[in-house]
Specification:
heterodimer, A: 189 residues, Alpha-Beta Plaits, B: 587 residues, alpha/beta, disordered N terminus
Chain lengths: 189, 587
């Protein structure tokens, strides 16, 4: 069964690494829904959050292929873990004097804030899980969305556990864990 | 009084180049650093072709310790380096200029990538200020080769050259070997830096597993010990890890018969009764029948290529699969593994040997033997008028006592050779398996002969493939290489013609191919040429070629429409093999 998987990929921050990751996913026909990249807590290490759609085996193969890139330090499939996965959206909504307060109320419901305003528009910034952004957009659509930009999610595990670059990566539904290159877990059926 | 020349003992950094002191840090150009790094890495041969961006490199070349082989086209530099690597186990090295020189290497890099060959390619790049400005002979070779290299580098300063090359050789040769490309701008070749070749290389994100997980080894042993109809599928990984001794001990102890992937030939003597022969699309009938019946399949160092497996859903349908591979990404990629064992084949076999029981499988072996196609042997005995391709291959094997290194091109002659040469030694069978690169035969023979001058080298090619790399005849002559070329000439692009014959209603589209008189052409190149048109001429021609010092080309003119039998139709199951009527079973 195909489903969405969220992979947290920690990489050495070398020139061309985004190209290497994107090229790998494309040439092996893995379907990327979104990819975000940014700094992590470690100097020289970037953190990517990649949302891929595929069968469990496909995603496991994607993880193992990613490990073959020299810059990739760790791949963690956090799909079934308890995680916070948040997106950022900027929405420019058409506004009139009589709709402005209603839009502000909607923004408040969705924990979004107004970051810019003109007599005819409000620029709203929202963060949160995908569903919350979807909900906000559904509510705003009737007023007229002039412009929209959304990031893919960035994800982090809840609680005290960290996706550290040490130790073994977890690939979903591991039944027989094998110590493999870079700690990739291998499924034994 | 003349000054007495005295020499103090000189410390070297591992190379055997005499006369180089390392007392003071040396300021060298990037080009000199590149050459010195290759020397200190122990490189003795480089295959290459000069050009604008590498002129500084070639300026430093005459002062280096390695031998540069000037090929006639950069693609063949990469393939010669592959041939060299395949027979020596050492990394092959090739170099080319920027732009077209670099793009011409791409096919060779892809070949090395698919066949896990350690290869280091050095390319020139335009001067740094011109990068990204569409300069003369500029191409983004690191971008282009991203999917066909294990890793690649664009070096930005002369001080980075030595560490980068050290790491490149480490990556190319360790774990699952592969090609690594190092792109060096002309301005970096000209820049000066202090030279020092690092002793070690390593990367945080690269830690290949060589020692297997012992729990997995025990699970594998348990499955092997309980098997009633086991088979071993021997792959290239056994050769790469240098595990042929351990493998022979394993076969001896477990009593399990061995089938070979194309690159698995040579992992175990084909003359041994435990060898069943080649598997897959052009494998032997009894091998594919055995795969159908096997209850346990032990794949050691093969990646379940589609030419070996046939339709994957029908592959070894009754077998539990043990998959030994150093690359975790190969586990479960094509065929699900019941017991995956990630590790170096040699380490795995060393761990496995103490856990497996000594057994014999007489009944199982007897059944497999009963499935042998004896019709083929009989057909080989009746000698048709034109030289029979099988007979040519067998005659070369007989003349050389099966000791020769054999390289091939890609197509029918390749399969005839794989089926009938009978490989009894490791690292003497050099062919393009994964990529199927036509033109491979001649350059790979050049690399092989330079790598192993002590061994006789034959290359079996077709009249299609040889016409792709004909200019390399000049390289053979220039290098005075004692290589024997056997061209199986049928006037067709034979394998494509065979598919059009069998699967496209004999619609022969663009497969008729003419060519020069190869014997005369050989003569023009300054080597010996022989044409063979009858069966009786085969053995004398081979004997004559072997007696001549220097390259010899034998043009074997065969029956134009000879096919490779048996064949599994593309997309079909291995159990659906086709046989020609005269090769059908007699019983």
């Amino acid at each position: 069964m195909k489903k969405r998987h969220t992979l947290v990929v920690q990489v050495e921050n070398h020139p061309g690494i985004l190209n290497r990751v994107a090229s790998l996913m494309r040439r092996r026909s893995f379907n990327i829904e979104s990819i975000t990249v940014g700094h992590s807590e470690q100097p020289g290490v970037s953190r990517m959050t990649i949302v891929v759609v595929g069968e469990v085996n496909d995603v496991e193969q994607a993880g193992k292929q990613l490990y073959k890139l020299m810059e990739v330090l760790k791949v963690t499939d956090v799909t079934d873990l308890s995680v916070i996965a948040h997106e950022l959206a900027l929405v420019k909504v058409a506004t009139k004097a009589q709709t402005r307060s209603e839009i502000l109320q909607i923004a408040q419901i969705f924990d979004a804030r107004v970051v810019d305003a003109t007599p005819s528009t409000l620029l709203i910034e929202a963060t949160g899980p995908e569903e919350r952004i979807d909900g906000l957009l559904t509510m705003l659509r009737g007023f007229g969305i002039r412009e929209l930009v959304r990031t893919g999610p960035v994800a982090m595990m809840r609680g005290g556990t960290s996706v550290s670059t040490k130790g073994s990566g977890r690939i979903e539904r591991v039944t027989e864990q094998v110590v493999a290159a870079n700690g990739v877990a291998v499924i034994a059926n | 009084m003349a000054a007495t020349e005295t020499r103090r003992p000189i410390a070297t950094t591992g190379s055997d180049r005499p006369g180089r002191a390392i007392a003071q840090p040396e300021l060298l150009t990037g080009a000199e650093i590149t050459c010195r790094s290759l020397d200190d890495e122990g490189v003795t041969t480089v295959f290459g072709y000069p050009g604008g961006a590498v002129i500084p490199l070639y300026d430093a070349l005459p002062r280096s310790g390695f031998h540069h082989v000037l090929v006639r086209f950069e693609q063949w530099a990469a393939l010669a380096a592959i041939g060299y690597a395949r027979v020596t186990g050492k990394p092959g090295v090739c170099m080319a200029t920027s732009g077209p020189g670099a793009t011409n290497l791409v096919t060779g890099l892809a070949d090395a990538m698919l066949d896990s060959v350690p290869l280091v390619a050095i390319t020139g790049q335009v001067v740094q200020p011109m990068i990204g400005r569409d300069a003369f002979q500029e191409v983004d070779i690191t971008g282009i080769t991203l999917p066909v290299t294990k890793h690649n580098y664009l070096v930005q300063s002369a001080a980075d050259i030595a560490p980068t090359l050290k790491e490149a050789f480490y990556l190319a040769t360790s774990g699952r070997p592969g090609p690594v490309l190092v792109d060096i701008p002309k301005s970096v070749f000209l820049q000066k830096a202090v030279y020092s070749y690092p002793q070690v290389a390593g990367r945080r994100g690269y830690q290949p597993t060589s020692v297997p997980n012992l729990r997995q080894v025990r699970l594998a042993a348990d499955l092997i010990n309980r098997a009633e109809k086991p088979l071993i599928m021997a792959g290239h990984g056994i050769l790469i890890s240098g595990a042929t001794e351990e493998f022979a001990a394993f076969v001896d102890r477990t009593g399990i018969p061995v089938i070979f992937t194309l690159h698995g030939l040579g992992t175990f003597p084909e003359s041994d009764p435990m060898s069943l022969g080649l598997m897959g699309m052009h494998g032997h009938k009894h091998v594919n029948d055995a795969l159908d019946q096997a209850d346990v399949l032990v794949n050691i160092g093969a990646r379940f290529d589609d030419r070996a497996t046939g339709r994957v859903s029908d592959f070894a349908p009754n077998a539990k699969v043990i998959h030994v591979d150093i690359d975790p990404a190969e586990i479960g990629k094509n065929v699900p593994a019941d017991v995956p064992v990630v590790g170096d084949a040699r380490e795995v076999l060393k761990a496995l040997i103490s856990d497996v029981h000594e057994r014999r499988h007489g009944q199982w072996l007897g059944w497999i033997d009963s499935r042998r196609n004896r019709g083929l042997e009989a057909a080989l005995a009746d000698r048709p008028e034109t030289p029979e391709p099988y007979t040519i291959v067998k005659a070369i094997a007989a003349a050389t006592n099966g000791e020769a290194i054999v390289t091939t091109d890609v197509g029918q002659h390749q399969m005839w050779t794989a089926q009938h040469f009978g490989f009894n030694h490791p690292d003497r069978w050099v062919t393009s398996g994964g990529l199927g690169t036509m033109g491979f035969g001649l350059p790979s023979a050049i690399g092989a002969k330079i790598g192993r001058p002590d061994l006789e080298v034959w290359t079996v090619v077709g009249d299609g493939g040889i016409q792709m790399s004909l200019p390399e005849l000049a390289t053979m002559v220039q290098e005075r290489l004692n290589i024997n070329i056997a061209c199986i000439n049928n006037g067709y692009l034979g394998m494509v013609r065979q598919w059009q014959d069998l699967f496209h209603a004999k619609n022969y589209s663009e497969v008729r191919i003419t060519g020069p008189d190869l014997a005369k052409l050989a003569d023009a190149y300054g080597m010996t040429g022989i044409t063979v048109r009858s069966h009786e001429e085969i053995e004398p021609a081979i004997a004559r070629a072997r007696s001549i010092d220097g390259p010899v080309l034998i043009d074997f003119v065969i029956e134009p429409e000879a096919n490779v039998w048996p064949i599994v139709p593309p997309g079909a199951s291995n159990s659906e093999m086709m046989h020609e009527a005269r090769f059908a079973e007699l019983d």
